[in-house]
Write a structure and sequence with these properties.
By secondary structure, the chain is mainly α. It contains 9 helices and no strands. The radius of gyration is 19 Å and the shape is elongated.
Length: about 200
């Protein structure tokens, strides 16, 4: 009788192995070969699930999006609007090791999105999630629904820019500076000043 393979369980095993490699060695080390070794599989068995590096990055980005969504808990959304906006947006920024690794996946996938439709589709979804978070923060701070499009676009650009600078220049953009810059921008939004 043929062995029944639970593909959902196997993908979960691969996700766990992939993130062990990413957290330990960085996203650049997450190759088919390294993940297969971490999972105790052969590279050919792993290629059954991920035929290309882009498929692996898309899978990683799905995990990043699920992790970020999971951090938006009831606790994150409770309190004064200004504090809620800060906590919510900080969950999207590379302020600790996990979020730095998640941002590295974002950056690699962004580079692939220029030439790969699957990467582009996943990046569009991720970008839309960040835009919605920016829109919600602007609405919280202004008390106006729907949120101002220009203010939302500026906040979205700030989040992307802070992430990129934190990855490329961590010595110039450490977590405390990211928090301070975000806080200053949110204070301007809350005060109704143009930002």
């Amino acid at each position: 009788m043929p062995k029944i393979v639970d593909h959902h369980t196997r993908r979960a095993e691969l996700a766990a192995a992939m993130w062990r490699v990413v957290y330990r060695d960085g996203v650049g080390a997450a190759t088919v070969r390294s993940i297969a070794a971490e999972a105790g599989w052969s590279p050919s068995a792993l290629r059954h699930y991920f035929a290309t590096q882009t498929e692996l990055l898309v899978f990683a980005m799905e995990h990043v999006m699920a992790e970020a969504a999971g951090r938006f808990t009831a606790e994150t959304r409770t309190g004064p609007p200004r504090e809620v906006a800060q906590r919510m947006l900080e969950e999207l920024l590379p302020l600790d090791r996990q979020r730095v690794r998640e941002a590295e996946v974002w950056l690699l996938l962004a580079a692939r999105a220029q030439v790969d439709p699957a990467a582009r589709e996943r990046m569009t979804e991720a970008d839309e999630g960040v835009r919605r978070a920016a829109e919600l923060a602007v609405a919280l701070l202004s008390g106006v629904q729907p949120a101002d499009d220009a203010a939302t676009a500026r906040l979205h650009a700030l989040l992307d820019g802070l992430t990129l600078h934190a990855l490329l220049h961590p010595d110039r953009m450490p977590p405390h500076r990211i928090r301070d810059l975000l806080a200053a921008h949110l204070d301007q939004l809350a005060a109704g000043a143009p930002s």
